[in-house]
Amino acid sequence: MNKTKEIIITGFALFSMFFGAGNLMFPPLLGKNAADSWLLVTFGFFITAVFIPILGILAHARLQGTMYDFAKKVSPTFSLIYCLIVYAISIALPAPRTASVTHETAIAPYFDSSSLVTSSIYFLLVFFFVMNRSKILNVLGKFLTPLIVIILLAIIFISIFSPLDIVNTSVFETPFTKGILEGYQTFDAIGAVVVGGVLVISMNFKKGSSFHEKKELIRKSGLIAGIGLLVIYTGLIYSGALFGHLFPEDIKRSELLIGISNQTLGNLGTTFLSVLVALACFTTAVGIVTGTADYFKGLFENSQKAYTITALIGSVLGVAMGQFDVHHIIHIAIPALMFIYPITIVLILLNLLPEKIATSGVFKAVIIVTLVFSIPDFLQSITKNDSITKIQEYIPLATSNLGWVLPAILTFIVTLFVKKQEA
């Protein structure tokens, strides 16, 4: 296989990994609410939903290890706890959300059945596929992503050449910040840390490929994946901004995507998109539960019992959480993301740096500070409290839920300066 072909194939593999069907719910509503500020929102969304996740893959390319290796420089105990929290969040939030998206896009518009019935049948099938590993879903996944992308590009293309103009003004006070925080909800940075190591190691590198050649392949492939995600997300945000005034203010994310699809492709195209999204969501759910079960199986000395129990817990959680609408699950996810996403972003950035700069001491200092300054955002996302608000007023960017950013940067600079003085 020549290098160009290998880069393109790997780029599409990375794109497919990040391109979760559930993520399609976010850009259109973001665009609708951003309206004339859609470009600022897109830039913010790009940072946390595209740029940081791709950096996560590049960090894995440097490590050539597992998710555990990502945080072990802080301490082995911290790394274990971090892994446990990430996997717990994965089966409790993004996996059930796929069932909710499936119900709202593919079931509710056509059948009068409850979301509990949908989530029960959905996760019964998930459990069956997790316990009976099959290559059917992998094969199916290879066809689903290209088909969904073709339909989405058709929606975007028709939207761009529609006679509509953006008539609304933004409802966001800080569109750029809103885009950053909405990008958290894609879970893509976490996905890069969880799946990235497995993907990088499993890539079919040529025998005898040097470390530099592997890194170069992943870097160029990451660029392809990033451009693909940027095109789709930007197009959907812009479509939301264009068509937003045609829909009510309180419209659900899934309803807006279906509505825009109806406006551009008609009923047949919308039905086709709904079925594809449902199938893609299902493969994502199976992947998350399988990956989590594999992790706990390895944690308990290759125990099949641990695998089965984890798969069962994941499926039961899926039924319980998946019956709620997408908006409710997104709301529940906010505290967890305010806590884990800053840590994940910092781990990705530190793992990109050379060993002589990102020492164990630097990791510990920056992560501890990030954790401490994320606490106000975390607590405020659980319950609005005047005391916490007053604390946030003294921390730069904290009122925008980004209070950890400057302290983390300053800690990094100070630790480097101290290390240089000691040398």
Describe the structure.
This protein is mainly alpha-helical. The chain is 78% helix and 0% strand. It is built from 17 helices and no strands. Helix 3 crosses helix 9, helix 3 (38-63) runs antiparallel to helix 11 (211-243) and helix 15 crosses helix 16. It is globular, with a radius of gyration of 21 Å. The mean pLDDT is 88.
Instruction: Give the helix level as a range of percent.
Output: over 70%
The number of strands is 0
Radius of gyration (Å): 21 Å
Q: Work out the helix count.
A: 17
Low-confidence stretches: none
Order of helices and strands: HHHHHHHHHHHHHHHHH
**Shape assignment:** globular
The description of the largest β-sheet is: none
Give the mean pLDDT. Answer: 88
Strand fraction equals under 5%
Secondary structure class reads: mainly alpha
Q: Terminal Cα separation, in Å?
A: 47 Å
Give descriptors for this structure.
mainly alpha; 423 residues; 17 helices; globular
Write a brief caption for the model.
With 423 residues, the chain is an all-alpha fold.
